[in-house]
Amino acid sequence: MAAVAERPGLILDPRLEPVLRDAVAALGRAGAGAEAEAGLAAALGAVRAALAAAGGPAALGERERALFGAFLRSLARAPGAARPEGVWQRCFLEGPPGLVFCVLLESLGSAGSGLDPREVVGVLEQFLQEGRLSALLWEVCQQQAQAGCPELQDVLINKIVCLPEHVSNKLQGKNPPVFFPQNYFPLLGDAILQVLEKISDSLRGGLDCSISFVSHVLGKVCIHGRQKEILGVLVPCLTDLTKSDCIWQRICWRLVECVPDRWMEAVVLGFVQRAPGADVLSRLLGNLVVKNKKAQFVVTQKMLLLQYGHTTEVLQNLLGYLSLDGLRRTLLLRVLQELLETWSSSSAVKHSTAEQQLYISKAILICLSHLKEPEIETHRQELLTSMMEGVKCRLDSSLPQQRRLGMVVAESISLKINTEGPVLKFEYEEDDETRELKFLLVQTPSFCNVPSLPDDDRSEKAGAALPLVPESNEKSHAAAPVMSNEESDTEFDSDDDLIPYDMSEDKELKIKAPVYIRDCIEVLTGSRTEDVDKWEATVKALESLVRKNPAATREVSVELAKILLHLEEKTCIEGFVELRQRAQVAVLTTDPIPVAKYLTSQFYSLNYSLRQRMDILDVLVLAAQELSCPKFLGKTKHSGAQKPCIQLLQGSDSSKGWRRVVDERIKNKTRRLDKGQCHVELASRPNEFNSVAGYFFFPLIQHFDRPLTTFDLLGEDHLVLGRLAHTLAILMYLAVNTVAVTAMGKALLEFVWALRFHTDSYVRQGLLSCISSLLLSVPTERILADMTEELLETQSWLGDVMEKDPDGDCRRLALQNLLLMENLKKKLEVVPS
Amino acid sequence: MALPPPDPQFVLRGTGAAVHILHFSCGGPEPDIPLLFSGSESGFIHVWNLRTHRVDTALDGHGRKSVYCVETMGGKDRLLSQGRDQRICLWDLAEGRTSVTDSVFTEHVGFCRCSLLKVAQGRWLMAMAARSLEEVQILELPSKTSVCTLKPEVGAKLGMPMCLKLWQLSCGSQPVLLAGYEDGSVVLWNVSMGKALSQLICHQEPVMSLDFDSEKAKGISGSSEKVLSIWSLNEQQNLQVYKTHELVNAGISDITIRPDKKILATAGWDHRIRIFGWKKLKPLAVLDYHTATVHCVSFSDHSNPRERLLAAGSKDQRISVWSIYAQT
User: Which ranges does the UniProt record give for the WD repeats (chain B) (predicted)?
Assistant: First the structure.
């Protein structure tokens, strides 16, 4: 306060006060005539001169400010004609900036005052361009050091931050570009920087200074959603300034610390998102998370566990920031614990979205990359437990992405905690996502120069490991001259006296495949291991053989189906699974009823692996598809059937292939209904699936709720249940226009109803596909006559799924179903009329 | 138009199991009957009388485990055999005896045939794969004393030895070993110093078989690939690639150069025997008789060149005997 007492402004300036009074009086007389106008101009000139003589607006005392305020207000009220052009604007621009700003905004807000809004905006524009905004901030900062009025400041903050809106509202959008938010807020940022510079100067001069007003402004701007504009200016400058200057660092820390709690989140988020690296973030925020509860909550809880939309860079910034200081490292460990808890909780796995799980996994990996050896040592057991739990419930999942995520994270954790022992290793296909995840683990924080390992060094090591190789390479280079030596003595050293025999028969070896189906059975069932080549050839030839000899196949169809179902890959044949599947499909389509009976009965019998059961489902679907699809005059019989086979097989790991088929058809159908009656007739042919659809469908749907000792569809074998649901959906779809379709639809609805709250999203997707195909396949009148009630129930369930399901695909499918139902309704309205 | 390839001279049936090794003993003077020894998967060594084409004796010394190496030691009365029971047996066959006189327990679990070299009258050196994976052991026979153990350098990662060829330039000079390894390289070892002289990577796959012509200092090796590799040895004892020869089908299980170094024969996984001229590796004939992988090829040691024979043993349990390029 000693510094304040010395300020000359407190001593009333004898010259300014009368001048101001005169000016107010002159303004009161304004409009009285030319003489009054001249007097006014002189009075304004006198005010400016006196103000300058007093040492500028900063020198004004309490009372003078009040007087000056009155003067400005009357100036603003004065009729336009009375104000001498050019001079009155200067009065505003040279006056105390806070006062001026308030008066200008007041006159902008009050209707019918002397000043035209455009004039006010013009002055404001000049005000901004002349850097008065920073003067304004600085003024308040100084006042604050002597305890300014908080309400007043709040008003001022509001006005500063909402200026673009005010102006725009007043001018109905015809505001000058400087008031566009994208221009205004960077300008405000610059002003803040200037003020911070002044603060830094005064701190260096040993003067106390308050930064909280600037913090408030910053907070308010951020909560208004203008982080991008303002921090885009502030962060790069502050990054530079704090590089080596600890006063600037302190200023920066204070700047963020003084932000009120209610705006803290927006500010911290803005900084974390915009800082170019964890080290910079650490410089800018200091130990904010330790000091401020709100910031701690935002950083350690909200951004990690509740939100999941942030980019990987943001995560890296955030966690890197936590790792860079001893105090914060305890937080890092706590965060890791909480992340792992979430990761390993099976209910979280089931009920959170795939994106969130990916986000959490990324966060875990980044945390791990920051852990140090002793920290790992103390937390090894916890890490191990969480890893085991998490990977268990992920491997249980039927979504491949989930499983892979579990495997990658578990591998990474095990890599970190087992520095010596064996490391967990799973088999999965690498893709961009897994590579990205693994990269997160190995990368070190940005300030350690990663690629500094000298290349020469590495190649030297490699050279040391294989000492003999380069040597021998050299030798092989040297081989050329040796050869020419040999070349020279060809005359007496040739094989010419040896006459070759005919070698035209020396072709690539081809194994002769069996020609009869019974031979195939013999080869495939034979236990003679040495006939591997023949076995391979048989597997390759079987499909075409079956298709060429339907009569012979029918004699042994069930036996052949049995053999194929149990056929294991003896040798490494390329595409063995596909070959076997195609042969199975061929057998099933050749003799549908007995083979379908056999396969469906085997699906529910003991002692099959899940893979075999899923094979059965695949084969049933492919065969049904082949039987139901119209073939063109028999000549494209094979290609027509094979094409979808391959597509399905590629997608057989996920539900994508299945869904794509159904989705496409749903799309086609929907469009057709919308357009009306433009039905394209395909080449007509009896649907071969018609007579056998029941054999495919009903045995499958009958026993799903009867667990066997080795197979529990409703329990842990939900992957197969999901496949079963998808299979039933496709069979239902393919059964369109068949006699059994209504009965099938009813059974299917019951099936769906029983399982509708299944926890596995893959199963739910299957159920939703079932509903789609039901709506598409069963004739409308039958749906309405036979299953109205069930349908209404289903509709409300679909509504629920659409709104609440954690899985995005489920929500989408539910929406599609509801649209289909809507179409159905529309159709119904059309029919009576 | 080239002549069609000849048919086998005769075929020996009756081993009852896949044939893994063949060895002729026809060099004896006139009253001696030319013999062919065959080792089969069932563990028997059959001694075939080449006059009657019948089995004279069947030797059972390897506990019914596959026999994959048979060599005579000096004459037809002393025989060495190696089997999958991890034993090398020395037989006394003189005067109708069929007894195992001595045996060496190799403790080696692979398929690497041992290699025998006569260094003096009644004294042989034998190279065999040893118990520890990468090592080769040299023994002196009949004393069974270990001469040395050849260990690759630490970290060389050669893998198991797959085939061995022990030879010396002339009688009395230092014995040298050529060994083909699992990683596809051939290494030249100085036996007396126990040190590798040169290494050459001939193949990407394990070397299945090799043979070496010490006169021309040139060798040939085959692997499970489609390529034959021919390499030479220069005066500095360095192995160099000489040329490679592309085959129609992959997989060579045995290579033998005829003792007169004019032709060589390969046993192919494609059931075929191939004959090449040794000097330029000119393809001469493809003998297609067997119906399964050919495991071994062997040339006879008839003193009269015109009687020379080629025999091949196959997984199809038959031994085909051919007379080819016997006139030259």
Answer: 200-241, 287-328
